[in-house]
Amino acid sequence: MLNRIVLVGRLTRDPELRKTTTDISVASFSLAVNDGFKDTEGNPTTSFIDVTVFDKQADNVAKFCRKGSLVGVDGRIHQRRFERKDGSKGSIIEVIANQVSFLEPKDKNESAADQGYVSDIQIPGEDSKNLDAIDVTDEDLPF
User: Which CATH architecture has domain 5-140?
Assistant: First the structure.
């Protein structure tokens, strides 16, 4: 069996960050994805996909993404079933993201490290930005 989905789209709202009872970060957002088809009037059609992401990825999404941000999502489809207070049953289909990639700069005036292009890499602290302090010899280079 295979359950994998890859999406590229724009956030329709700011991510909502919350914590579980075990202090795990959870971020939820909706992604507008172009379907690649046009309606009868020639306008492109769009799907709105609910996405949930956990842990450090959730923290990074909440910190760096806003409504309109272009992101890539690699994840899986998940169906949640529940019972409402009135006793009726319902279900929600959403994407559980394994990885969220930031596909455009947050602000063109910021440096690439501050923009968090790759969300699964820790952004170095201020003290490690001084590249003059790195001592590299010719033997260390692979070419």
Answer: Beta Barrel (2.40)
What is 41-89 written as a DSSP string? TSPEEEEEEEEEEEHHHHHHHHHH--TT-EEEEEEEEEEEEEE-TTS-E
DSSP 8-state code for residue 104:
S
Maximum Cα–Cα distance across the chain: 72
- Amino acid identity of residue 46, one-letter, is T
- pLDDT value, residue 140: 56
Residue 50 burial (C-beta neighbours within 10 Å; 0-12, 13-18, 19+): middle
What does the alpha-carbon distance between residue 50 and residue 122 come to, in Å, rounded to a whole number? 26
Residue 77 has pLDDT above 60, yes or no: yes
pLDDT at 16: 97
Whether 143 has a pLDDT exceeding 80, the answer reads no
The answer to whether the predicted template modeling score (pTM) of the entire model surpasses 0.90 is no
Q: Which of 53, 43, 42, 66 is nearest to 115 (CA)?
A: 66
What ranges do the domains of the chain cover? 5-140
